[in-house]
Amino acid sequence: DTGVSQNPRHKITKRGQNVTFRCDPISEHNRLYWYRQTLGQGPEFLTYFQNEAQLEKSRLLSDRFSAERPKGSFSTLEIQRTEQGDSAMYLCASSPASGNLNIQYFGAGTRLSVL
Amino acid sequence: DAKTTQPPSMDCAEGRAANLPCNHSTISGNEYVYWYRQIHSQGPQYIIHGLKNNETNEMASLIITEDRKSSTLILPHATLRDTAVYYCIVRAYNFNKFYFGSGTKLNVKP
After folding, report:
1. How far apart are CA A2 and CA A25, in angstroms?
2. I need a labelling partner for A1 at 20 to 30 A (CA). Which of A16, A74, B70, B95 fits?
3. Is the minimum CB–CB distance between B46 and chain A shorter than 8 Å?
4. Residue A51 gets which letter from DSSP?
5. What pLDDT, in 10s, does the model give residues B79-109?
6. Nearest 5°: CA angle at B47, between A22 and B20?
7. Which of A70, A86, A1, A88 is nearest to A32 (CA)?
8. Does B102 touch chain A (CB under 8 A)?
């Protein structure tokens, strides 16, 4: 059973650079979620995909953030012109289309540090 | 926004039961109670969920009061590996996002 996979696990970048993270959900899970977690806080919802359609975006997802899920499989989260406030753990989760009351299974996350 | 209230931290002796409380006094009739935990530097891990009946699985038990305004997660025999932040979340089953709040930091001590 391969769980949700996220790459890279850690990313250090300079302010103003663009970064992209990848999430591979559990196979056959058609729902995919992105969350952000800052130190000492619980994860905060960013966006949600059902198959390739992005159905919901949080107001936390500024114009510098874009997420895609081509072909309804893996997803990418890109942050343009990074700022120090973007430093956080970015978590991806997936859930099946039905059953299990929409339990979300999380990856280990990508930790972003913006210098 | 989070609809639950949890103590910020709790201690538990190894081998003893850990009882983690959660208050959700504004819970709606169609909202479930979910529990997740997050061990340091890992993603949140699903533990258990329930609507109104008590639930048990291989990880834990969930006790929900009759008025559904509060619940308790029970780890029957806590081990050092259970040290983590535990999140209590209420959510309608067909709602897409989880509101995690700040959770309870459980420290299991030898």
Report:
1. 9
2. B95
3. yes
4. T
5. 999 999 999 999 876 777 888 888 999 999 9
6. 125
7. A70
8. yes
